[in-house]
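S.,

Sequence below, as promised.
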Amino acid sequence: MRKHLPADERRAATVKAVIDLAAEQNPSDITTVAIARRMGLTQGALFRHFPTKDAIIEAVMSWVAERLLVRTDKAAQSSASPIAALEAVFMAHIDFVSEHPGVPRMLFGELQRSGDTLPKKIVQTLIKHYGERIHRLLEMGKACGELDAGLDVDAASVLFIGSIQGLVMQSLIAGDVTRLRQDAAGVFCIYHQGIKRAA
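The prediction came back faster than expected:
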């Protein structure tokens, strides 16, 4: 890595280094020394861009929240119907995690931290906004007759997110991120069967 990068590029490189490290080890064990070493920097150079380790984690969580919502929003907007949008969001989320396997480890890690840290609040806000988007698509699906008129939208939203989390957990247990893409289509198909309008 080049020693002298503009501040924005250095911050982006730091985020990438942390996410890459999180794919290899417990995120709570990642040290600023390890981050700096991964980037080919001294710890002092790293702290010129981030005053604390928590500031680094905050930047990572902000990056994840922004990128995931932008990617899933784009997937939904390019779809022809609510159910197609739900599937596109599901697969876009799976693709995002497949490309950045350290992300779910970091999200789960932050949610388990005690206290109300800023990174934890960013994760909680991400989950809230994501859930609202799924809820809205499900309501649209009911309104246009694609989904069952009696569908419990709250439960269906929880199940949507839970299905992705389940796939992620299975891939972590297996130590094989390729399972995400392999299993995702089948899992969404079963989800769709449960929520679609009865024939």
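Residues 36 and 42 are 6 Å apart (CA to CA).

Coffee later?
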